[in-house]
Write a structure and sequence with these properties.
single chain; about 210 residues; alpha/beta; Rossmann fold; seven-stranded mixed beta sheet; 6 helices; about 30% helix; globular
Length: about 210
């Protein structure tokens, strides 16, 4: 059994059951999104460093985010805040019609763009900038995924959701929870999904 096939079986045991998510995980080798020195560690079910104080998320958390979006009928437009290595970006590009992604560290953005091009993925729009501001010009979005933690949910991101849209964001400082926030006509509905550990979402961009 290949590594990715074993990973799919592990995710199934952790209640990742959407066949579309399991398929893209199986078809997206994690080692392609890491430096060569870390290839052997790509098989670990943990977050791994990608430079600049950033990490690539553990596969389970990425899969949980994608499964949650699909459970909320997200199909079209998704905004990702924190491109990082491009691992989650690549998987979401195979699930959703259009992905917009923001990265504040230029070197990470350049390498992620190159990796996706090498894999013939072309339905992703990249932006170098401050993720706290979202990307209003490309919205509104069916789903927004934030791959860094915040002390509280930024209102500016909520406003970039379509009605019925779903925002997934790690909330908290010493204790973090992955929040799923759904926009309704007159209110927002929030549900906590999982205890997580992410680096903080930093304001501003960084050359």
């Amino acid at each position: 059994m290949t590594y990715n096939a074993r990973l799919v079986e592990l995710l199934k045991r952790k209640q990742i059951v959407d066949h579309r998510v399991l398929h893209v995980v199986e078809q997206t080798p994690r080692y392609r999104f890491l430096d060569s020195a870390l290839v052997e560690k790509s098989f670990d079910q943990t977050a791994l460093p990608i430079g600049f104080g950033q990490t690539i998320s553990q596969p389970y958390i990425s899969a949980l985010m994608m499964q949650t979006l699909l459970q909320h009928q997200v199909q079209d437009s998704v905004l990702e805040i924190g491109t990082g290595s491009g691992y989650q970006t690549a998987m979401m590009a195979k699930l959703f019609t259009r992905v917009a992604t923001i990265e504040r560290i230029k070197a990470l953005q350049i390498s992620a763009r190159r990796r996706l091009k090498q894999q013939d993925i072309h339905n992703v729009q990249f932006k170098y900038g401050d993720g706290w501001q979202g990307w209003e010009a490309k919205g509104a979005y069916d789903g927004i995924v934030v791959t860094a933690s915040v002390p509280e949910v930024p209102e500016i991101l909520l406003k970039q959701l379509k009605l019925g849209g779903c925002l997934l964001i790690p909330v908290g400082e010493t204790h973090q929870e992955l929040a799923c926030v759904v926009r309704h006509k007159h209110r927002y509905e929030t549900k906590m999904l999982e205890t997580v550990r992410f680096a903080p979402l930093v304001r501003g961009d960084l050359d």
